[in-house]
Write a structure and sequence with these properties.
With about 325 residues, this protein is mostly helical. It has 10 helices and 3 strands.
């Protein structure tokens, strides 16, 4: 990566700087959120791995989502926790690009993966007889790999363009993480190519999965309403309720995070929205699936019982 005429070796985060007296409280809150995120998603991954009942396309995609959420939150939270103990909250130039790479990769992958999960629910409810063929292991692997590939290609494109920017003397980022629009504000060079890339990725990686998911659920809801029995409707809806909740949270916070008006900018509000999108959402996903899915709850309960019995056995 070329750094021609680049003199900036580190960036200073200004996020949370408005409340220096609350640094200790912020540290505790984000530490708890991070630990809950790791524990919740690791429990989901373990439950899916050990229970043969969960070896289905829906839970295959869910295991990808859980691994993705662990990567996503680990990209921002650890360095943020360390910075709470620093008077000068910094990140190196290379560290900023690395964080940007993983953030963009994870965000892009999650949007496409949620669309793939919506397709899975659409086939399960609207074409149940063809489900084993249309959602075979091979198809699921292609959909999951395609999701990661979309996020990776999108990220590499942005990182390549961002690395060529000539930055001005200012190295202060009004946030707690590195993001493309924030770096564009610090650039002295032409950013038109970066802006075009942002618009293209917003349409392809952002808007397209959102529209596809919305259309899928319109067809799903239409199919559910045609079911004669109330019990059948309830059972059909329960199979996609968790995913629909996660979709609404992810795309809802994403829209607020990236479509805020340039006028009336408030640092605290911007940080709050980013916290919801980058940190809280990965924590909520496993909680939602644990609360809504009977099979996952039973497997985790069994895991907890086995761990408790193992501790008691060792104690004796």
């Amino acid at each position: 990566m070329s750094r021609k005429n680049q003199t900036i070796t580190e960036f200073i985060f200004l996020g949370f700087s408005n409340h220096p007296e609350l640094q200790g409280l912020f540290f505790l809150i984000f530490l708890v959120v991070y630990l809950v995120t790791l524990l919740g998603n690791l429990l989901i991954l373990t439950a899916i791995r050990i229970n043969p009942v969960l070896h289905t396309p829906m839970y295959y995609f869910l295991s990808n989502l859980s691994f993705l959420d662990i990567c996503y939150t680990s990209t921002t939270v650890p360095i943020m926790l360390v910075n709470f103990f620093r008077e000068k909250k910094t990140i190196t130039y290379e560290g900023c690009l690395s964080q940007l790479f993983f953030l963009v990769t994870c965000a892009g992958t999650e949007g496409v993966l949620l669309a793939a999960m919506a397709y899975d629910r659409f086939i399960a409810i609207c074409h149940p007889l063809r489900y084993p063929v249309l959602m075979s292991k091979k198809v699921c692997a292609y959909l999951a790999a395609g999701s990661w590939l979309c996020g990776l290609v999108n990220s590499l494109t942005h990182i390549g363009l961002t690395a060529t920017l000539i930055l001005c003397s200012s190295n202060e980022i009004s946030h707690f993480l590195c993001d493309i629009p924030l770096l564009l504000k610090l650039s002295c060079s032409d950013t038109s190519a970066n802006e075009v890339a942002l618009y293209v990725s917003s349409a392809t990686i952002g808007l397209s999965p959102c529209v596809f998911t919305a259309v899928s659920y319109m067809l799903i809801i239409s199919a559910i309403l045609k079911i004669q029995s109330a019990q059948g409707q309830k059972k059909a809806f329960s199979t996609c309720a968790s995913h629909l909740t996660v979709v609404l949270i992810f795309f809802g916070t994403a829209i607020f995070n990236y479509d805020q008006p340039s006028s009336g900018y408030f640092l605290d509000l911007d940080i709050l929205v980013s916290v919801l999108f980058c940190i809280v959402t990965p924590m909520l996903n496993p909680i939602i699936y644990c609360l809504r899915n009977k099979e996952v709850k039973e497997t985790i309960r069994k895991l907890a019982g086995e761990c408790r019995s193992s501790r008691l056995h060792r104690a004796k």
